[in-house]
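Now produce a polypeptide, keeping tokens residue-aligned:
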Amino acid sequence: MDIIDLLTREGVIPSLEATSKKHVLQDLAARAGPICGIDERAIFDVLLARERLGSTGVGNGVAIPHGKLAELGHLVALFAKLDTPVDFDAADDVPVDLVFLLLAPESAGADHLKALAKVSRYLLDREVCARLRGAHSVESLHAVLTQGAAPHAA
């Protein structure tokens, strides 16, 4: 499964105003709800529970919040570029401005882990992050995230 299979243009947010990690998660949950047909509160609760286990801030200003929901039928992804970086309790203490949300069905098992691995490998590439930070439209962000992601992550 490639990023292009997970992320639609509808799931790309080129400018997200948020003042905290909690605010980022709330906003993403609110936007993910209509896309996957699940109550935003249920999504937010799953994301918050995962953050309590340890930050999903992976470094270099990138966070990959994720969670599993029993009601979900397939993997769902959203990507947001924050207007102002926020503290995400990342191991490198760098504030986050690029956020890739991944939601999976409870039954996803290895597919969820494979998708997480692919996304994290791709987003840990500093050149990719620089291109994302330089992109300002849904189309350009979606193109950076989906064009070349599969061969690069392989």
